[in-house]
Automatic annotation (TrEMBL):
<keyword id="KW-0547">Nucleotide-binding</keyword>
<comment type="similarity">
    <text>Belongs to the ABC transporter superfamily.</text>
</comment>
<dbReference type="InterPro" id="IPR027417">
    <property type="entry name" value="P-loop_NTPase"/>
</dbReference>
<feature type="domain" description="ABC transporter">
    <location>
        <begin position="2"/>
        <end position="229"/>
    </location>
</feature>
<dbReference type="InterPro" id="IPR050763">
    <property type="entry name" value="ABC_transporter_ATP-binding"/>
</dbReference>
<dbReference type="Pfam" id="PF13732">
    <property type="entry name" value="DrrA1-3_C"/>
</dbReference>
<dbReference type="GO" id="GO:0005886">
    <property type="term" value="C:plasma membrane"/>
</dbReference>
<dbReference type="InterPro" id="IPR017871">
    <property type="entry name" value="ABC_transporter-like_CS"/>
</dbReference>
<keyword id="KW-0067">ATP-binding</keyword>
<protein>
    <submittedName>
        <fullName>ABC-2 type transport system ATP-binding protein</fullName>
    </submittedName>
</protein>
<dbReference type="GO" id="GO:0005524">
    <property type="term" value="F:ATP binding"/>
</dbReference>
<dbReference type="GO" id="GO:0046677">
    <property type="term" value="P:response to antibiotic"/>
</dbReference>
<keyword id="KW-0813">Transport</keyword>
<keyword id="KW-0046">Antibiotic resistance</keyword>
<dbReference type="InterPro" id="IPR025302">
    <property type="entry name" value="DrrA1/2-like_C"/>
</dbReference>
<dbReference type="GO" id="GO:0016887">
    <property type="term" value="F:ATP hydrolysis activity"/>
</dbReference>
<dbReference type="InterPro" id="IPR003439">
    <property type="entry name" value="ABC_transporter-like_ATP-bd"/>
</dbReference>
Length: 290
């Protein structure tokens, strides 16, 4: 289990992190969401030992995370950390050896991951000759080649086409189902919503919301959507709560008093739709970051 506790970090006068905490349990995926510059990458770099916090702790299975412990992690930085003039298969195997694998085992694992990620026929190509999306696949293979116990991935879906997104999502789900904790950041909120057990929303260096998607939705602003066929003009004003017309015979109310709205709607015409719209993760993100 990974625990990040009360991280603080400044760069000169800029506060990058102001008490950021999160935890990722075995077999769970944690989605890290925030605007550019919110603190996601800084948190990940501190977790991986690339940066040192001003204060705070990073724990692995209840103990202070050490450099030897980080060697069991798979890390995918936002900026590609690949050698452009090195052949792909050799490069993946090289990173496997750096993580402690024997040359033979690293070579075999590199080939397996190239096949798994749809690059089995590109092993002798140079990284610089690949599209950006395929370079992203190689970067993921580098993070996975040594069978890590934890995955820390900064914008892993950036620049991928839909097929590559599906491939990467499947791989991450498989790793998670095998018991590996996974934390990744992404601006693709629909992916975070679909894949993650827990989501953390960070804004200006502060974690403003954390929980399951269902928990975050429960905290969000639900809107009551009502369709009334043949409604009398202006009926919505009689309810006494904010209402917005969103189409022919359709209104949205910002209220939890559904019975009050229902009574007014049935008096105004024939109610053909009545129910709450659950906020999407994008809606929750906008609310939490405002």
């Amino acid at each position: 289990m990974l625990e990040v506790r009360d991280l603080h970090k400044r760069f000169g006068d800029k506060v990058a992190l102001d008490g950021v905490s999160l935890s990722v349990e075995p077999g769970h995926m944690f989605g890290f969401v925030g605007a550019n510059g919110a603190g996601k990458t800084t948190t990940m770099r501190i977790t991986m030992g690339v940066l040192v916090p001003d204060s705070g702790r990073v724990l692995w299975n209840g103990k202070e995370l050490t450099e030897s412990g980080r060697s069991d992690f798979g890390y995918m930085p936002e900026e590609r950390g690949l050698y452009p003039k090195m052949k792909i298969a050799a490069q993946i195997a090289y990173f496997g050896e750096l993580a402690g694998m024997t040359p033979a085992v690293a070579k075999r694992a590199a080939g397996d991951w190239l096949d798994r990620l749809g690059l089995g026929d590109r092993g002798n190509d140079f990284v610089q000759d690949l599209s950006l999306g395929n370079q992203q696949r190689v970067q993921l293979a580098v993070a996975l080649v040594h069978d890590p116990k934890m995955l820390v991935l900064d914008e892993p879906f950036s620049g991928l086409d839909p097929i590559a997104v599906d491939t990467m999502a499947t791989v991450l789900q498989e790793r998670s189902e095998a018991g590996v904790p996974v934390v990744f950041s992404s601006h693709q909120l629909e992916l975070v919503e679909r894949l993650c057990d827990t989501v953390g929303i960070i804004s200006a260096g502060t974690m403003v919301a954390t929980g399951t998607v269902a928990e975050l939705r429960a905290r969000g602003n639900r809107r009551l959507r009502v369709t009334v066929a043949g409604a009398t003009s202006g009926w919505e004003n009689s309810v006494g709560v904010p209402a917005t017309s969103v189409g022919t015979d359709e209104w949205v109310f910002d209220t939890d008093d559904d019975q009050r709205v229902l009574q007014a709607a049935t008096a105004a015409g024939r109610v053909t739709r009545f129910g709450y719209d659950e906020p999407s993760l994008a809606d929750i993100f906008r609310e939490a970051s405002s």
